[in-house]
Amino acid sequence: MKFRILREDLLLPLQQVIGVIERRQTLPILSNVLIEVEAGRMELAGTDLEVQLVANTDMEGKESGRFTVPARKLMDICRLLPEGGELAFDVKPERVSLQCGKSRFILGALPAENYPNFEHGDPEAVFDCEAQLLRRAIEKTAFAMAQQDVRYYLNGLLLEIRQGRIRAVASDGHRLALFEDVVDGMPDVARQIIIPRKGVLELGRLLARVEGSASVRISANNVRILFGTFSFAVKLVEGRYPDYERVIPKTACRVVVVDRHELRGALTRVAVLSNEKFKGVSLEIGEGLIRLRAQNPEHEEAEDEVPADVSGEAFAVGFNASYLLDAINAVASDAVRMSFTDANGSCLIEDLSDSRYRFIVMPMRL
Amino acid sequence: MSGVELLSAPLRMRIRRLPPQLINQIAAGEVIERPASVVKELVENAFDAGARHVEVDVEQGGVRLIRIRDDGCGIDREDLGLALSRHATSKIASLEDLERVASMGFRGEALPSISAVARLTLTSRTADVPCGWQVSADGSESDFDIQPAQHAQGTTVEVRDLFYNTPARRKFLRAEKTEFGHIQTLVQRMALARFDVGFRLRHNQREVLRLQPDAEEGGRPERIGALCGPDFLEQALRVEFEASGLRLHGWVGLPTFSRSQADLQFFYVNHRPIRDKLVGHAIRQAYQDVLYHQRQPVYVLYLEIDPALVDVNAHPAKLEVRFREGRMVHDFLFSALHRAIAGHRPGRTASVVAAPATENPAPLAEQPQQSQQPLFRVAETPQRPYLSSGDSETLGDLRRLYPASLPNPTETRAEQEIPPLGYALAHLKGVYILAENAQGLILVDGHAAHERITYERMKRQYQAGGIASQPLLLPVRIRLSRADADLAEEYGEHLARLGIELRRTGEGSVLVRSVPALLEGSDVERLVRDTLADLREHGSSGRLQETLNTVLASMACHGSVRAGRKLTVPEMNALLREMEATERAGQCNHGRPTWVQLDTQALDRLFLRGR
């Protein structure tokens, strides 16, 4: 099979697909990209057996065929070729040669039939929504996912559809992030799925540059999302997600509204002298201000004050500064509302202007 | 056919009394396992008789003959027969005596058990009679024929043809050499229990061991050296600790003098050698985080305790004991040894490496002469290729800045006392610090040493700072056995003080509601399970502390100077001074040594000087 394709047409989808291909492989074919050419279209697929990404691109020509070549090497070659060049592929069973101007390369190929097939299964729930909505859901929650926790179901993102709404929840057992929005035309099914960590991060990266709508197809053990020129599929984490609704505080007896930038600045400064491992910072919340204090094992101390709108009695509470900062950073508005039930209970953090997302952070006893 | 008979036999059997000899043979099965067991029982009898000297003669690994002669108080003529019958003893008389046994034996079973499996002759003479008396037995007789015999004061027990009537046991005996090896180790072990008793051990008429009795400590090194190797005392710390009626003394090996087998561990409770789980655990805990991986510590330790607080009637051969106040003994041993090991500083006991023999003196011989010159000249001259000219300028500036704080080692040597780890000479390959002290050359692994210093500081700070605990947003449910869940409830307060908060939620499950802040992200479930297992086994657990220490250790590792980073002389000297002031500075966090001494003699040997 012989075909020609513009460098840019190949490079961009290839750069996306490379994201799911692991650098080090025990199975050689997994470091290859599967290329399918058919009637003026090219499909590039990469997988790590958990996540699969297929990218489509246009090309000229009438020939069709499938082959796999080392993905990273192909990408490096494309990247280093001059802009606007045209690549001429000549595909033989074990060798793929490509030429662009005076540059010639011969890559080793592995048979396409050996490339692992990603089983999709029958979709049980299908709905369309804005791609940017998915992106926001991930952006607001992904930071709270656990990493290599023994409770494997926490190493992922909970996606819940119910009553025309979509919810994304992530938690590492210490803090929790929740995003919720209405989706028009959502089918009347209730489903909870857990998308593994790597899939979530990869999907977030891909969605960053996509406009328009995305189609989500949930089947028994995987979810496939089609958007733009991509088809993204990921195997689901089996297991039940903890009952997160129980940890959302219902009643607040103390509410603090504070400027997000000032609080962030003070927290970051004070945290310099906190314990380097768990970043303990204490917040004394009094009339009209929050006083932040930190002390490290060398008994060095930091103190800072931030004006705040406080309702309820004065009290003190300790936090892991990184958890608090993660939540504050995810808030978009200038002011942030923190609600407490008591000094030992969790703290609810909300955006004053956008009620679609909420964060819950557990305090620390210092 | 016989198989069928055996199977049907129980149906027709009637209950009947066992003949006395069979009873004794069964009893012997528990106590007399091999020739060494006979020696143990008889030497203990000699101790109890107040002997000052014990002679052990062995032939053919003890199978043919074991003769033990002591100069103790002896046995009265009238008691000789009784001594050979079961459950007869002079050592205790009532339950009260049993509850506070001060003698080695008390069961009244040794002699009849031995006589049930061997031919035994007992000869004895007390101080106040003109001649000795002798009695022989092979376990079958009920009346004893007592004959006069020539004997000095004391007792001789002769055991011939061990296991002649129990072929099954005989089959399990090892080679003569092995069996004698066991006897020899046993005698050495017993000799360590009583320094005031002299010993002589002969095998096939050849003298193998001769130890003089000594009340003072003079002869002790010899006995200990014979058992633990001559290096042990050089590489050991003397322990002497007394508190709340308990006294612990003896020697513990330095962590670097550890072994791969637990074969040099001798523990005596009131002069009785024992092997006890509780004791072993306490000692291991004391060595925690100074011992390399699975290495075993070496020790010879004596615990003196009120006999009423130990139950020795727990094991037929009395290898195990029960402490009435197990927890207290555990904590006592742990704190005494922990302190001893932590307190070991350079300079108090030198860990000396034997220089390798002269085969390969090349690497040291190639060392440049400059290393003996005053250091500043070295730093200034462009002989060090790694210094760019800019760097040497900075060094020169630094030198001018701190002229007083950089003592010239050659001058200092004459003027003031040299600290134990001496003064730094150079940094080798960015890894090893070479320093000179009064004895000679000191080599220090800079990273390992700094890691230990950082680690000890972090541990101190963490302990001083109180424990921050992180409540969990999603509590962790752990399924446990009912007994473990009970235990978790019982120790709830103890665990809460350490930062783990648990709540019982059902018969066999607990909910972990908070963990120490330092340990968030670790496997909570495993930590709780392991801690409970420790609590169940030993009544205490250092597991949580160990896990915290692991976190601190890895923080210390990252916060220490890396191998490859070049240190300046003042930096190296500062490190050496800090090592001298730091607990457990002799080992890095993983138990590897941090420094060694190559003394002048060792160096002389390398160059064949003065031979």
UniProtKB/TrEMBL annotation, chain A:
It is found in: Cytoplasm. One of its GO terms (cellular component) is DNA polymerase III complex. One of its GO terms (molecular function) is 3'-5' exonuclease activity. Keywords: Cytoplasm, DNA replication, DNA-binding, DNA-directed DNA polymerase, Nucleotidyltransferase, Transferase. One of its GO terms (biological process) is DNA strand elongation involved in DNA replication. It comes from the Bacteria. Residues 1-118 form the DNA polymerase III beta sliding clamp N-terminal domain. Its main location: cytoplasm. The keyword Methyltransferase does not apply. Residues 246-365 form the DNA polymerase III beta sliding clamp C-terminal domain. Residues 131-243 form the DNA polymerase III beta sliding clamp central domain. Belongs to the beta sliding clamp family. Confers DNA tethering and processivity to DNA polymerases and other proteins. Acts as a clamp, forming a ring around DNA (a reaction catalyzed by the clamp-loading complex) which diffuses in an ATP-independent manner freely and bidirectionally along dsDNA. Initially characterized for its ability to contact the catalytic subunit of DNA polymerase III (Pol III), a complex, multichain enzyme responsible for most of the replicative synthesis in bacteria; Pol III exhibits 3'-5' exonuclease proofreading activity. Forms a ring-shaped head-to-tail homodimer around DNA. This is Beta sliding clamp. It comes from Methylococcus capsulatus.
From TrEMBL, chain B:
One of its GO terms (molecular function) is mismatched DNA binding. Residues 224-342 form the DNA mismatch repair protein S5 domain. InterPro entries: DNA_mismatch_repair_CS, DNA_mismatch_repair_MutL, DNA_mismatch_S5_2-like, HATPase_C_sf, MutL/Mlh/PMS, MutL/Mlh/Pms-like, MutL_C, MutL_C_dimsub. Keywords: DNA damage, DNA repair. One of its GO terms (cellular component) is mismatch repair complex. The keyword DNA repair applies. Residues 424-567 form the MutL C-terminal dimerisation domain. One of its GO terms (biological process) is mismatch repair. It comes from the Bacteria. This protein is involved in the repair of mismatches in DNA. It is required for dam-dependent methyl-directed DNA mismatch repair. May act as a 'molecular matchmaker', a protein that promotes the formation of a stable complex between two or more DNA-binding proteins in an ATP-dependent manner without itself being part of a final effector complex. Belongs to the DNA mismatch repair MutL/HexB family. This is DNA mismatch repair protein MutL.
